[in-house]
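hey all, quick one before standup. I had two proteins in the batch that finished overnight and I want to keep them in one place so we stop losing track of which output belongs to which input. First protein below, input sequence then structure tokens straight from the run.
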Amino acid sequence: MKLGVAAATQIAAFICGEKGTPFPYKTGRELTLFFTGLGHGYRIEGHSSRGNLAETALVEIDRQTGDEDSEYPSPEIVEILEELMSPTAFEASDDPEADYPKALKAINRVLGRTNLQIVLINGRPTVQTTEGMLVSTASKSIKSVTKLMFVPSVFQIPDDPEPKDDLVAVMMPFEAAFEGVFKAINRSCSELDLRCFRVKDIWKESQIIQDIFELILVSRIVVVDFSEENTNVFYEAGIAHTLGKEVVPLAQSVKNDVPFDLRSHRVIEYKNNEQGLREMSQKLKKRLRTILDGHDWNSISMEDDIPF
């Protein structure tokens, strides 16, 4: 597959961060570093403009490396696309027009014409087909997997289904006795600059099950409290697992609250009193930090007991 000149021209404008696009502006020097950093010897010298450099580079790389008979773009093009959509570049930019969600939609509108898309997997931009097959070769840490595609009959997919990196969904019993538990969870999240919500705190749709599904879908992490063998929470945990979310289970009694099928998962056990909630909040904060750090070994310490 080759991108073609039309798509390459549009993507070149994104790489430059041209005015009117939601991408970070790049100077001629930054464009040179963008391409040379990926192993391509294109420099601003010898080109009439930034746009000319980016377009020439992209068209030539596509022409030289693309295979018309392949269903997928070349590894070189995939690497450029994934580097272009690196969240780090947007975070470091002081360009007021740079907007990552809008940029992701813009690049996917262009790529959609060739049945490609870029999605975030564990915070990393990854090229996929629109059918969900992973074609990324640039992200070495992401294993090639077969992805299941399904259309839910009970839930509606929201207009903006992209997970929010700072959002934590909390699935737990609604009883007043659990208000202190939620406050402890909220404290853990706040200390890590995360937002956390229960479905009882929002009302977007007329059916509560739709709000539950959407909250889980757009959250990065889902905390579930299995205490009192709450069947609603079991159902919600099943949704979260199916959607591939990072699920952090809690329970006041693993023996009494957690069914056999879920006991292979590590559970943070706690007591619903002042000291117990304080200890739970500390353990939860540690677990959340490990997830945010990408399960990096350097982020793991032995400050707290690990649940078994």
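OK second protein, same deal, sequence then tokens:
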Amino acid sequence: MTEQPDGLADLDGILRRRQGEPAGPAVPAGESLGGAEQAAAQALGQAGLTRSGLRQAAAREAGAEPAATPSPIGTTPRVPTPPVGVGAVAGAPHRRSVSAGRAAFPSVTVMGANTPPPPATAVPLTGGTSQVADGAPTRRSVGAASVGSAGQANPAGATGQHGTASPSPAWRSVSHTHPPAAKTKKKRRVGAAIVGVIGELLITMGLLLGLYVAWELGWTTVEAHRHVEAIVKTEVLTRPEWIIPETTSPWAPLHTEAPPVDEDPLAVPEFGEIWAVLHVPRWGYDYRVPIVEGVDREKILNQGLIGHYPGTQGVGEIGNFATSAHRTTYGAPYNRVAELQVGDQLIVETDRYYFVYNVYDWEIVYPHEVRVIWPVPNEEGATPTKRIMTITTCHPMYSAKQRYIVWGELAYWADKSEGQLEDLVPPADRAAIEQGQEG
């Protein structure tokens, strides 16, 4: 054990005699503490000094690390800390609180059992923490009292390591701070405004999409019909070589022999020029759409016209007279293709002749299956012997995933100079025309 200085030994002895414990040099029996000794002991008590504190102070002066002394109250050792802050006596050791190992909570020094805390001026608590006189923040105590390192409850206002706080209604439970209501309402208004803008944009896009669909399916068809009718009136019926049969003339005789095109083939028109006009009684006796050379989408099909596949046979010739047109937009010439039945007529009118094909078969294929427009459909390299007409269009409706195919075979032909074609006149009107012919 390290030898104590004389002054500390005297104080240690006085403290031992005050606490009724034997000290180094025994006091003679019946001898009591003198006035000076009593004053010194009282000062030591007020300063919070104990025997262990004296020993630790002596060890620090001697340069040795003091050993921790078991706490008489609990199992947590009291380790001295340097005197810091207001409310502690200069040079006096401090005791750590039970939570001394938690860095987030400042320790509370427990003074002597009968020692009142020194007075100090506390700063009002705001925002969940209190600022003591030396400016160090401390946490609020929970309830009206706090627990010190020895497990004893200290009343509100007890001395802490960083100062004291006077009893106040603010020393209640810790409450979390919340954002002001004004900020919350502002955030809600901003969020509602953003959602409103997005909603308006979606509604606008929906309206624009609806207008586009209406234009694509409706207005383009209206414009195409007008364009087609104008072509028929200005470019077909006005052609010098185009024969218009007399309505009073008798019905033109029907020919089943080889048509004149075998000896005098029709000249293949240039790209975009008119071949003939197609009539389909199943789709209406007023149905008539020009057939032009080529199947270009923008220049021909989107104009509401029917295109002829270049490289396939001409009208009335042996082989395959293959055509293509839209089904749902831009006039949709082949819109009602699925209504065709076996035996229905496909009538192709040229400058001088009528060529009547009867429907005999149909099929749904994929776009790459070009076998359907071969001279002999579905038979590559075969020599054609029949005069075939092919209709190709998109399938299903409003889609280009597949192709709807209809085939017709030439049944007969008629010369326009010999009269009208009876098949192009509605049945209700035929009787009147026949009476006129007889008269």
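Flagging for whoever picks this up: The two ends are 155 Å apart (CA to CA). The chain has a mean pLDDT of 74.
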